[in-house]
Amino acid sequence: MQPGAKNSWDITSKERIIFSIIVMVGSFMAILDTTIVDVIVPKLTGPLATDMYVVQWIITSYMIAAAIALLITEYLIKRFGAKKIFIAGIMIFSSASFVCGISSELSHIIIARIFQGTGEALIMVTSHIMIFSYFPPKKQGFAMGIFGLGVSFAPALGPTIGGYLTEYYNWRMVFFVNVPIGVLLTLASIVFLPKDLNLKSIKLNFISFFLISMATISILVMLSLGQQKGWFNNSLIGFLLFAAIIGYLLYTLSELNSKHSLIDFSLFRNSDFTNGILIYFFIMGFSMYQYFYLLPVYYEHIKMLPTLDAGIAVFIFAVFIGIFSPVAGILSDKIGAKNVILMATVIYIITSLFILPTLNYYTPLVQAELLTIPFGIGMGLFFAPVTVLLLQNVPKDKGELAIVLMDYVRFVGGSFGTAIATNN
Question: Cα(5)–Cα(257) distance, rounded to whole angstroms?
Fold first, then answer.
């Protein structure tokens, strides 16, 4: 950082590039794991001597841990600094990946996945806030476009990488691949990332955190078990829904009667912030994760392609997510985030309602791949402008909380979407 710098973006171009690469690689590695593991889960029933419903806990445990850890990340960042929490997240994530890779017992993998999900939450919030701080306000749209390469491109790329590793190596490589990357990222972060300034000693509302955690666990477990148990024909599903509702209600009461709230709901008085959160829930979570699940299923189970070929087919539209994420960031800086969001919405509605539903068994493979490209463009155009809209409409000291809420609703929305997509 330059001597006498008053702002976090008062750094040299070389420093900005180095810092950005480090946090981008970290976020890419973490979020890639949300879909890369989906490919290997069906293949684990034999080696782990279990059935599909039980092995699904490898995914469920990860998502629950990540969602809960998100809620405490703002406190950790303000107390210890983004750099330390980022490094801690990388170390936890890569260590847990190693344990998953060497485990032969399902219970051991599930426990390791809990730690992995926790690490992912720490990485995502810290990397998000750090890369946003490295760029001046006039270039923050571009910053979020670059960051969107990880957030939007990585989950779409997951099936391709997972298919390749399982096809030519084995399922353990899906976890082992994170280890050397984690080691290099830890060393690079310690050496290169700037020190944190203006740390705060804030209080954590443990009661609110406990209540919203219980509600989150209930809703995510309910969504995970819904299809297996027959949804509301089963008493356990009804109980979990009841527990989630009561948990959120008690959490709300706790927040209203506390001097130190866990979430500052005054942020939602800003309509742009509220609309951004809704887009994150319904588009970046609920809808996007349905398609990330359904497109590999279409290629592998309807078009009957091998796992790797299905992954390559998905990669076609993923490339366009990666291309248009920085394009959206540049456009956000030039014509405004709201205009880019409108453009993305029009493309997304047309593709999701009129183009993708036409895919079927008889659709030629090349035609099917081409028809998914507009969807990739629409997805790529969303992330940067929505994130800029959110972060530019909150006070500077609330940036961490805004990112926590964005990622939390994305996780919960994605769980709803995946539950619907897997419901036969």
Answer: 41
